[in-house]
Each structure stands twice: as structure tokens, then as C-alpha cells.
Amino acid sequence: MNFDGFRPQLSQDLPPAHAEAAISSEFDRRTVLLGGALLAAGCATIPWTPPARCPFRVVEHVPIPMRDGISLSARLWIPDVAAKAPAVLECVPYRKRDLYRPLDDLWGATLAARGIAFVRLDVRGSGDSEGVLTDEYSEAELADCEQTIAWIAAQEWCSGAVGMRGLSWGGINTLQVATRRPPALKAIMPMGSCDRRYTDDAHYIGGALGLTNFQWGVLFKKVMAGPPDPAVSGPGWRDQWRARLEAAPPILATWLQHQREDDYWRRGSVFATPGAIDVPAYFVSGWSDTYSEPSLRMFASHRAPAKCMIGPWGHTYPGIAPQGLDWEKEEVRWWRHWLMDEVTGIMDEPRLRMFMPEATASQGGPIPGRWIAENAWPARTHVQRLYLNATGLADHAMRGVDIVHRDRGVVGTTKPEWLDRLPIEQSHDDSMCAAFDAAPLEADIEIAGAPRLTLHVTADQRIAKVFVRLCEVKPDGTSWLVTWGALNLTRRSSIAAPEPLEPGKRYELTLDLRAAAYRFAAGSRVRLAISEGFWPMLWPSPKTPTLTLPTGVSTLSLPVRTHEAAPAPFAVAQTSGASEAPNYAPAAPDTNGRIVLTHPTPAVPYPVAGVGTVLSSTGGQTCEMTSGDPLSCAWRQTSRSTWTRDGWDCAVDVSYELRADAEAFELVETLRATERGEEIFARTYRASIPRDLL
Length: 694
Fold this sequence. Notes:
By secondary structure, this protein is of the alpha+beta class. The chain folds into three domains: 37-207 and 260-374, Alpha/Beta hydrolase fold, catalytic domain (Rossmann fold, 3-Layer(aba) Sandwich); 382-561, Jelly Rolls, CATH 2.60.120; 594-690. The strands form six sheets. Strands 3-4-6-5-7-8-11-12-13-14 form a ten-stranded mixed sheet, with helices on both faces. Strands 15, 16, 17, 19, 20, 23, 24, 26 and 27 form a nine-stranded antiparallel sheet that branches. Strands 28, 29, 30, 31, 32, 33 and 34 form a seven-stranded antiparallel sheet that branches. It is globular, with a radius of gyration of 25 Å.
């Protein structure tokens, strides 16, 4: 998800013709200095030598026939060697010929030069593949992948062994294809992926409606409606484009009509079929990537051989992330082990590697910390239980007066998004919450796992939420977000079958915060901040509830990990780099109490090397609400993508606006396409959709 308009940031801007040399230079590094110190976490070299680099050929476009007569477009990197090669497939709708080309060039050359073919397939109805695309992870898409795997295995250059990899969409469909057990599929590498579409794939967060559902939906609609390239599709490209535009559904309305976890969301959610994936899997994510939580969960439940890596990066590939890894070495070892039966030592090492941060990425600069190792998840920890007392967090219960809490303003603008932008310093939001602080720590403590809140709570409304943040409060008073959790209380017993609250009734519920690894420094305080709302990440409840929190009975359980005396050897070098500190500020209301958040996306033309196409994406997002008036909430977004080359000049514009009263959402979504500035298609969809305890 969220790759429309994405330009991969490589260490140097090199045309594809020089990519191989750059990759070779990266691969041949043996150690990397980070912050002036050798970062190897006790590194000892694994006795495995990568194979000598080999030549390879690139096939720009190969049509692969499907069962229903359409052809999908693939780009191939094939090792030029005597022996047959295994192959790795990546299938995403992000346009292999232009938008995703730099990444495809990078990984195609990386794998092919080490004896592994790479096949990059455009999802049906996207890029240069025929057909139409109407939703995420359709049955047709999964069947296409299954058929493509069989096609790859049957090629004269292929050994018959196939792997599948991908980030985000590509990782999620990798999981779903693996449940179908195509015979040639021998191993997978899902990165930044999830096993539960309703709660973990940008739609409903803890059973609450997420802004990210609409951010992603706007970009996805442009993916569905983008034109094929005439250089590949030929004279019929306009007819194909018209078919895509006509078929593009009101996807935001579709998603908004499924407000509980029903069969629509369970389709393709592999958590519902444990054990269905029977091939080795390497789960990869980063702590600043919201998909780290399901990655760890899938690793814990995987029944075939598995590894997991969680690093100090966000929603990206680990090889190109700031403070990423020498991922070529790691990935080549994985595929040569499982696709070529080569002894690489990769399965002799700890199964789980995690970065243990000593500061949050939000503070900017290189993230201090070290790599730790485990062989299972949950990690080896002990529980430190803290009680939510009237005086703060303590290791013993102290009954006191109930805390009656009503959010003191609009909480959430220090972390406005579920996925993309990093949160900023949290004091602004903390001041409007029910905040519980522990005493200053006498020594460092480390957590590795999912903090658990057992909460006793009463609400005065039928619909209410809780949003919980765990922060480190430094001695200077700054507050930094470590992890968080959310729950729509009407989904307290079942995500699939919500029930309204009984006002005035006390409920006891358990809320697991997102898994995290973090080192709290001596002298800092652990803070738990509880609010009802968290805007704009979550759509507000119809009325602003008052929550009553009895003190001395609710508990926060921290998974505390003992600092190891000698870190396990880690043979993968970490790259240098640093996260940029976020540069926005908490939102202040105007004189009428109105808060308006804007997030523009300026146009940055992107010439695609080797193709001649110039891409551009622009737009903007606005969220507004008046404090104390949740029915004043409005979300809007516009987004425009263009493709130009010689006489080829196409544009797609998408927008939406969402408002609501106490009973229903009012949604408007639009799609418009132009060629050479002239409108060739326009459609506006309006829907009134009842609120289902949201």
C-alpha cells in the first residue's frame, strides 16, 4: 500500500546501466562504521562466501498468458549461466515500467548476479498487464500468481524452484498465495506485511475507522485507473485505459460499508487459517513500520521453518532504509539455502533479530541501540506489573478516588497518521489525557514485547474508544512515544459482532499495545497516557464520552528483558544513515476552537531513467474539527498523477470528502482522467452509509 508517487531513495542516483556496479560495491563491504564505532553487535563472520558474480540478461516485457485469455506483463532478470536457476517472484500493482523501476532494477540485478532469477509481475489491470483491477488481493490476482509460479517453474532457464517476496502489497499477497500451496513455491519473504486485513492493513484500527483507510484508498484508486504504457500495450492502450476507468469502483464506499470484521475482510486474512502456509518464511519489518506487530505475530505462529528481522526503520525495504542492513547478503543467503539447497548457515543463527533502540526515531539522527537475538516470540522476558493509581504508576495498588476523564481538547495531533509520518514530542497530547507517571527509574530497563493494559473503565455513552500511549519522559520533561494501542469499546468482546456499551456500567478489558523493543534510560519516567479520542488518526465518536477510571485496580504489564552479558554474533553489517526528525508542530485551535490540519504533496517531476517517461504526483489532505463537536469532523484529500513522454500525456485525478452526523457517514469520491489536457472520463459517487457503532 501507499506506493503511488513513491520514488525510491538509493544511496546514489545512478541510471540502471550502472546499478550492477553500485550493488557490487555495496555487497563487497565487510564492515560499516556507524557513529564512529564498529557496529556489529558482537559480530562474528559466518563461514559462507557468496558465489562469484555472474552475467545476466534483462527481458523488458514478457506476456504471460492466463487461464481466461488475458496476458500479464512481466520483466525478467535471468542469470546467464550453464545451470538452471531458481527464481523469485514479486507481484505488485505499482507499474514495473516506470514507478517501481529503480527498485526492480536494484533487486533484479542483485539476485540475478548471484545466480537467482527475478520475475517482476504487474498485477492484472495495473501497469502493463491486461484486465482490470477492482480491489485488493482479489481471487483473480491470487490465481494469477499461482499460475505465474507454475509458468516460471516450467521455463527452460528455471530449475523449478520458486520463491516469492514483496513489501506491503507484495508481502500480503505473498502470504495469501502461499496458503494455496503452489507446488513450485519453496520459500517466501514477506516484508512489512500483515495477516489480518481489517485491523492491520490500513482500514480499521482497533475496530475504529482510520484516516489511513482513505489515504490509501485515494492512492489505490489512482493505481486502478492508471494508463498502460503505449510502448508496451501498443495501439490498443486507450481502450485498455478506458476499461480500467469504467471498472474502477467507489472503493472508499466499499470499505466503509464493511465496518465490522465480516467475510469481506476475512477473505485473504491468513490469520484465520493457521498452518495453511507450509513453506519456510522470513518475516521482515521495522519498529517505525506499523506492520511490525503482525510480522512478529506471524513469526510466532508459523509452523514451518521461519526467521524474523525487525530493524530501526519504517515501511521500506531494509536494504535502502536509513540504518538499514547489507540486505543483499542476507537475502541471497536465504534464497540459496531454500531454493538451491546450499549450506549458507542462515538457519544456524538465531531465528529472531531485533534492534533494541535507546531513543525514538522521532528525535532524529542515528538511533542509538544494538541488535539482540531470540529464538522465539514472545521474547524471554519477565512481567513488571504497574498499577494505575491516583498518584501515578506504582508496583503496588493504592485505592483512591476514581478519575473522571473527558479529553481536554483534541488529542492526537502529535501522531496524526497510522503509518507514514513519525510522531513528534508528546507533551501537547499528554496534557489533555489521563496520564499516569512512574517514579524516575533508578536503572535502565528494556522491554521486548507487547505491553498489556488491564483496564477497568466506565463510559457515559453507548459508543466510546480508548487510545493508550506508552511514553518515555526524559528528565528535561520531554515525552517520546514508545508504543500505543487502540480499541473501539463496542468491539471489546468481538471485532466481528460489536455491541453498544451500557452507560454507567463498569467493564474490565484487556488491551495489548503494539509490540515494541525499547530501552528506558535511568532517570526517565514511564508514562501511560489514556484518551478517548485520537484525531485525526481515528474518526471521532458521535458524542464526546466521559470515561471513569477507578484507581488502584487497572494494571500495566511491561515485558522486561534482561540485558544480555554478551550479545549474540550478528554477521549482517548495518548501513550508516539517520532518520530525519519530523518537522510539524501540534495543531492549535483558532478562536472558534476549530483545528485544521493540512498536509500538501508538492509536485516533484521524476524522469524515469531508461524509459523517457516523466512521472509526477501532487495533491493535499485536509482534516478539520472543532474541539468538543465531533460531528464537525471532515476529512478531504485530492491526488493527481501524470505520465508524459513525447506525445503521450495522461493524468488521473482522485478526491474524496467524508463527513458524518450521529447516524450516517456522508461520502463523496471522484475520479477524473485527461489526455493532453482534455477530459476523457469523469465520475462522482455519493453515498450515505449508516454508522455501525463507530
